UniProtKB/TrEMBL annotation:
Localization (cell): Cell membrane
Record-level GO cellular component terms: plasma membrane
Source organism phylogeny: Bacteria, Bacillati, Actinomycetota, Actinomycetes, Micromonosporales
Gene3D superfamilies hit by this protein: Multidrug efflux transporter AcrB transmembrane domain
Protein name per the record: Membrane protein
Keyword annotations: Cell membrane, Membrane, Transmembrane, Transmembrane helix
UniProt xrefs under InterPro entries: MMPL_dom, Mycobact_MmpL, SSD
PANTHER family recorded: MEMBRANE PROTEIN MJ1562-RELATED, MEMBRANE PROTEIN SCO6666-RELATED
Stretches assigned to the SSD domain: 213-327
Signal peptide: none
Organism: Actinocatenispora comari
Superkingdom field: Bacteria
Similarity annotation: Belongs to the resistance-nodulation-cell division (RND) (TC 2.A.6) family. MmpL subfamily.
Transmembrane segments: 178-196, 203-223, 229-250, 271-294, 300-327, 366-383, 519-540, 552-572, 584-609, 633-653, 659-681
Length: 723
């Protein structure tokens, strides 16, 4: 691997302008494809094979008009007025009639028909809108016309807000994400003390993530894609792109200072640091691509989209970056920042902060180890209380129409009206379909719900749908229990009425998805931990180093999940982190966190421990190897972790709660894994293990293949470089 990367680096040096031009062509081509082929992104989630999805599929065949999505146009009269006033009633009824004629709408029931007017002052009600297609397939023209009719009601002096999954705001890139990039630039300036090497990682990262993001956008025209997928790819691609370039530039710059020729230095940097980048990028790619084993389509697409962007970032780091370094030549430090440059030299020496910290940790290894484990254990306490859910309109940005409609319904009708359940009754074989459906309704009314609507039949009365209003919100545990109770009672309902029932609707769909993800979580953890043991055994030819790395990964993962539960489920510091709705954790967040954090944890493990292994192989002193290896790797790993944390944290304060919670979890996970586990517990454990850290049975040593991680390149006509 190192020999190939060495030759690739030398080629990029000789043909720098060709390489740069080739990447520009790819970037322009992807931009063109994105503009011409892009499709519509959705904020909906579905999993084929779940009970709720099976019921929807059945409705699509037997009752097509009831299988589409739905929305609500919430109307509120001014203070001192009522929806029952004749003038207001005419306005609302006329709008309901117009909504029923909108292309893509199969029906619209006014508050007076559906009896959806709040008690008391009768100020608030909502028009129920039924679509011909699922929420994610409702066209923009249909939604625009509905918004236009809502605007006419506002012009008449009424408050009107449109809610429903079809009107949810897709995840967008906002202004707060740029803060993370600004912090990353500051970190790079501090690390390099010079402008050009600080900007090169940012430039190459933007090229890589731009190509990846545009490619995903182009594919959205052919693949049904959730709106979170490109944002996740952007988040991860930007972070790893900057980090990978940082490692290569750092190695090249150090070799230039030692007097090495530019071309040779680029080749060697690509062979050494580039080898580590390829290995690290491969681990991240495998972890993200492994999300497909969960067999949940939208999660598979998200994982593969992010994994593809990571691969592009790796290719950019080992091809485009060497070409740009060749263009810079010996002028790489032509724009120094004197103050930062002096600080950099002081920090990087044998008496720098990294060296002092390594000395402290190795001298006080047992107390440090105990203290670190206590901190991680305390942070992990909330983790077993994890409760999964999916975002509803209550998690939308404050001030959005869908959030306003959600709050109006919850405040005036109750939380359950925002998460109605749809019970589909198959009436084939019943002697009296109407009587059977009414009997089903009566049984459902006895399950402790707020309301049960009258049955609605298809044309031949072979299928009926019955809307059930829970007494709790969509993501509450009581609602999940209610869905399970109805399903458990399906057998007795069939025996008593002759009808076969199924529970569906957005709330039931989300409950099923969360349940599927919860079941997949332990399996995915085992796959990832097992993968880490195998990869690191290949890399370091040791048994204890991989075991230590896997245990550290699990500890940082549990602590990160504990922090997410405390903030997003229990509501601790919710105001500080702009948490719109607490009580649950995004259902696919733990699996995503496992995949991403695993890859990044292995990155830092490789960059730190590979240098310790190199030092140990030179002189055989395990304690000196830990201290020297840590001193050489700590500064770059610290900068890389700070950049990762900055990029992820930039998404925390955005408007979309789904993206914000992902950013928080990833930022916290990297913070704990990089600084508490890799930079503290790893040197303490390595010092404690001593020579036994590198023990490997002879029979296993013969079996394991040799993996070249930051190894020496083998150029054809130049002396072999030293890693």
């Amino acid at each position: 691997m190192s020999g190939l990367l060495y030759r690739l680096g030398r080629f990029a040096h000789r043909r720098r302008w060709w390489v740069i031009a080739a990447w520009l062509v790819v970037l322009v081509g992807m931009a063109t494809a994105a503009v011409t082929l892009k499709g519509t992104l959705a904020d909906t989630f579905s999993v084929p094979g779940t009970p709720a999805q099976q019921t929807i599929d059945q409705l699509h065949r037997s009752f097509p008009a009831a299988s589409g999505g739905s929305a609500q146009l919430v109307v509120q009269a001014p203070v001192g007025h009522s929806l029952l006033e004749p003038g207001i009633q005419r306005q609302v009824s006329a709008t309901s009639a117009q909504l029923g004629k909108v292309d893509g709408v199969v029906g619209a029931l006014s508050p007076y028909q559906a009896k959806t007017i709040s008690g008391g002052e009768h100020r608030t009600g909502y028009i129920s809108i039924q679509f011909a297609k699922p929420d994610q397939e409702v066209g923009d023209a249909t939604k625009d016309r509905i918004r236009q009719l809502a605007g006419q009601l506002r012009d008449d002096g009424l408050r009107a807000e449109v809610g429903g999954q079809a009107f949810s705001n897709a995840s967008q890139i906002g202004g707060t994400e740029a803060i993370g990039v600004v912090v990353a630039v500051v970190v790079l300036l501090i690390v390099f003390g010079s402008l050009i090497p600080a900007l090169l990682p940012l430039v190459t990262a933007l090229v890589g993530v731009g190509i990846g993001y545009l490619g995903i956008t182009a594919l959205s025209g052919a693949i049904s894609m959730n709106s979170v997928a490109p944002v996740l790819a952007l988040m991860i691609g930007l972070a790893v792109g900057i980090d990978y370039a940082l490692f290569v530039v750092s190695r090249h710059r150090g070799q230039l200072r030692d007097g090495m020729p530019v071309g040779e230095s680029i080749g060697r940097a690509n062979a050494t640091a580039g080898s580590a980048v390829v290995f690290a990028g491969t681990t991240v790619f495998i972890a993200l691509a492994a999300l497909s084993v969960v067999n949940i389509p939208f999660l598979t697409i998200m994982g593969l989209a992010a994994a593809g962007t990571v691969i592009v970032s790796v290719l950019v780091a080992v091809t485009l970056l060497p070409a740009l370094l060749a263009v810079a030549g010996r002028r790489l430090d032509a724009v120094p920042l004197p103050i930062l440059r002096r600080r950099q030299h002081r920090a990087g020496g044998e008496r720098g902060l990294g060296a002092r910290w390594a000395g402290f940790v190795t001298r006080r290894r047992v107390p440090v180890l105990i203290a670190g484990l206590i901190v991680l254990g305390v942070l992990a306490i909330p983790a077993p209380k994890l409760s999964l859910g999916l975002p509803d309109a209550g998690a939308e940005p404050a001030g959005s129409g869908s959030r306003a409609a959600y709050e109006l319904i919850a405040d005036n009708f109750g939380p359950g009206f925002n998460g109605p359940l749809v019970v589909a009754a198959d009436l084939h074989g019943t002697a009296d379909p109407t009587r059977a459906a009414l009997a089903v309704r009566q049984r459902l009314a006895g399950t402790g719900v707020t309301a049960v609507a009258a049955p609605t039949f298809n044309a031949d009365k072979t299928t009926a749908i019955i809307t059930v209003i829970p007494s709790s919100g969509p993501n509450d545990q009581q609602t999940k229990d209610l869905v399970q109770r109805i399903r458990d009672d399906a057998g007795s309902i069939h025996r008593a009425t002759g009808a076969r029932i199924g529970v569906t609707g957005s709330t039931a769909l989300y409950i099923d998805i969360s349940s599927r993800l919860s079941a997949a979580l332990p399996v995915f953890v085992l796959i990832v931990v097992g993968l880490s043991l195998v990869l690191l055994a290949f890399a370091f030819r040791s048994l204890l180093v991989p075991l230590k790395a896997a245990v550290g990964f699990v500890l940082s993962l549990l602590a990160a999940i504990g922090g997410v539960v405390a903030v997003y489920q229990w509501g601790w510091l919710a105001g500080a982190f702009h948490v719109a709705e607490s009580g649950w954790v995004l259902s696919f967040l733990p699996i995503l966190l496992i995949g991403v954090l695993f890859g990044l944890a292995m990155d830092y493990e490789v960059f730190l421990v590979s240098r310790m292994r190199e030092e140990h192989s030179r002189h055989g002193d395990p304690q000196q190897a830990v201290r020297t290896g840590f001193r050489h790797g700590a500064r770059v790993v610290t900068a890389a972790a700070l950049i990762m944390i900055s990029v992820f944290a930039g998404f925390v304060f955005g408007d979309n709660m789904t993206v914000a919670s992902m950013g928080f979890a990833l930022a916290l996970g990297v913070l704990l894994d990089a600084f508490l586990v890799r930079m503290t517990l790893v040197p303490a454990v390595m010092s404690l293990l001593g020579r036994s850290a590198w023990w490997l049975p002879r029979w296993l040593d013969r079996i394991l293949p040799h993996v070249d991680v930051e190894g020496a390149p083998k150029p054809e006509r130049t002396p072999q470089p030293v890693a």
